[in-house]
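testing teh design pipeline on a random one, pls ignore if ur not involved
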């Protein structure tokens, strides 16, 4: 009997036979007690009584798949004789149950650098129906193509795996719908939420926003020579940056905090320059993050020193001595003096 059969439906049963005649062969029927079924007897035009099984209330195969009843035929003789037969009723399935997910929301966290094909989580839905009506397949709900570029779902197992490279800096959270469908076309949906964990896959990027070069050699200590911007798109310790400046003792790195909390490194002059000693300075700035392993970004900074007139001319000798005859002609060269100035350009041009 199909589980969707309406109460009141009748099902003919086999008639009993009695070899006696007369009142000894008159039969009545009895059915073992069961709230779902009763017995009705229909009399045919020839006077024969035919037993019928009557459904009294709706069936539910998922609660009870079968019934065992006993039909008894009793004659009208003396002594009374009877015969019995077992009636087994199998309830056949109807697709009256939709799939049911074990959770309404599935959550998982996955590292951003896992290879494609890695298992993220598994959704599971059950269907109380039997056969094809209870077989469940899985698929994406109404999701954009961008989701399917990063994740895939196995139609049989419900496993959700990565389909492409994930990038925490590009997107750190995904939410989409998974559909479960049984063989009869009934569906259910659940929500999947996936968070991407940051990995230290980005090195700090150093940008020189402004470099004052050349720097006058008479610039005072504390002069800002360059403004530096460092970006590390990673989060947490992976994005925290420490700095190291090497190459010259005349400069240091001063880290200022902006109103927004960002770091603003400044290259500052800390020791007087002397162009006549060193005309340019080569510096190396390193930015290291706090990841494991740490990643480092580097920048080369060349600072040229601009000349200042900080040197007076110097004669080649403090005193020039020459002996001249008294009859030396007017206009004769008596002696040549020479002075040099280590400054550059016009500052080093000497006039006498």
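output:
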């Amino acid at each position: 009997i199909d589980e969707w059969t309406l109460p009141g439906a009748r099902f003919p049963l086999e008639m009993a036979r009695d070899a006696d005649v007369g009142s000894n062969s008159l039969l009545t029927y009895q059915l073992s007690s069961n709230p779902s079924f009763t017995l009705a007897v229909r009399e045919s035009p020839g006077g024969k009584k035919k037993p019928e099984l009557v459904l009294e209330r709706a069936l539910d195969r998922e609660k009870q798949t079968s019934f065992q009843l006993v039909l008894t035929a009793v004659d009208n003789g003396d002594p009374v004789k009877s015969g019995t037969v077992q009636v087994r009723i199998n309830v056949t399935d109807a697709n009256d149950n939709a799939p049911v997910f074990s959770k309404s929301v599935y959550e998982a966290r996955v590292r951003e650098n896992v290879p494609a094909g890695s298992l993220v989580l598994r959704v599971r839905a059950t269907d109380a129906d039997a056969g094809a009506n209870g077989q469940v397949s899985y698929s994406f709900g109404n999701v954009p193509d961008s989701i399917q570029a990063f994740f895939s779902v196995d139609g049989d197992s419900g496993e959700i795996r990565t389909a492409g490279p994930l990038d925490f800096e590009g997107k750190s959270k995904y939410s989409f719908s998974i559909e479960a469908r049984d063989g009869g076309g009934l569906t259910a949906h659940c929500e999947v939420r996936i968070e991407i964990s940051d990995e230290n896959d980005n090195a700090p990027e150093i940008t020189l926003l402004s470099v004052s070069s050349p720097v006058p050699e008479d610039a005072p200590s504390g002069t800002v020579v360059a403004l530096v911007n460092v970006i590390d798109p990673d989060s947490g310790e992976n994005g925290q940056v420490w700095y190291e400046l090497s190459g010259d003792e005349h400069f240091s790195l001063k880290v200022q905090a902006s109103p927004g909390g960002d770091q603003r490194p400044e290259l500052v002059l800390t020791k007087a320059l002397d162009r006549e000693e060193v005309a340019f300075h080569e510096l190396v700035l390193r930015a290291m993050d706090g990841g494991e392993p740490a990643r480092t970004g580097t920048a080369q900074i060349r600072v040229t020193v601009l000349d200042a007139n900080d040197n007076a001319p110097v004669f080649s000798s403090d005193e020039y001595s020459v002996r001249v005859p008294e009859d030396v002609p007017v206009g004769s060269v008596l002696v040549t003096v020479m002075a040099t100035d280590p400054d550059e350009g016009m500052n080093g041009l000497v006039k006498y």
